[in-house]
Amino acid sequence: MAELDDRAAWLLKLLIERYIRDGHPVASRQLSREVGNSLSPATIRNVMADLDEMGFVCSPHTSAGRIPTQQGYRLFVDQLLEPEHMPARVQRRLMQEILGSRAAGSDEMLQATSHVLSSLSTMAGVVTVPRRNRAVLRRIEFLPLSGQRVLAILVVNQHEVQNRVLQTERTYAAEELERFANAINTHFAGRDLLALREALRQDLGETKQSVDAQLQSALELLESAAPEKRDDGDMVVAGGANLFAFEELAQIDRLRDLFDALDRKRDLLAVFDQCLEAQGVQLFIGDESGYRVLDDCSVVTAPYSLDGRVAGIIGVIGPTRMAYGRIIPLVRDTARILSEGLKAS
Hints:
single chain, 345 residues, Arc Repressor Mutant, subunit A, three-stranded antiparallel sheet, 48% helix, elongated
């Protein structure tokens, strides 16, 4: 990304803030009035031409002013943005609506979160539902059954118990299975089961050469007992109709595709899943999401936690012309409050 001097960065920041506020291309003369006598009109025109050449702004029509490009928004967010402090009244509303729904259960809290996000952002609010087989192994036990079968008892997350009947290649004694379980609990307690299964499938051949025979057999049983895949997941979406209010998204074909994506959810889940391993707020501007229907949108996300670990993602979907300084802290604080509510529920 090209380096900007302080003057160019200042003018780019002013242009983006005005465009976000008004939604109209910004002419050099408008910036000239805003900066007063600090810079001459000729200097502003020259800087605007330089920003255009560097790809940070563009003119939608020949005689129009300029609007930010995706590259311009990215520089603005990464280097020039000054996030706003969350007003106390907004904090109170988040806590009232999210924590106030706690008594009705976690599903109702997720619904309330998507609705309050939509209402406060005036865009689409999204919350992904925790995936039930995203399970952290706490303990495993093996019990012999008749024939060449073994019952695997898995304690996952905090107190959830899952049972698996495994068909084995030979008969195992109870004492042998107890040793296997002890070895697994010593080495692998606290690990994500699905990630562990995938790692075992990829690395078991190499692992067998570096561990003793007892742990080899234990690993083979654990690989059989772990879930094969995550569930398809789901998400709660509220406020899709808010997107009608933004002129840049108001083309019929574009809205139809976007509403279809919000309804179908599968592809949006893939976008949100990218954030499960990330820390803090994540922001996709335009085609950074890798999903064509979001090319004219921005997506702001943050993870929320359940039982001390990341369980899902909340986010806001809106036009690239969104008030990032307000939306980023809104998403961040909403995720924090939802995590607190789920912890206490």
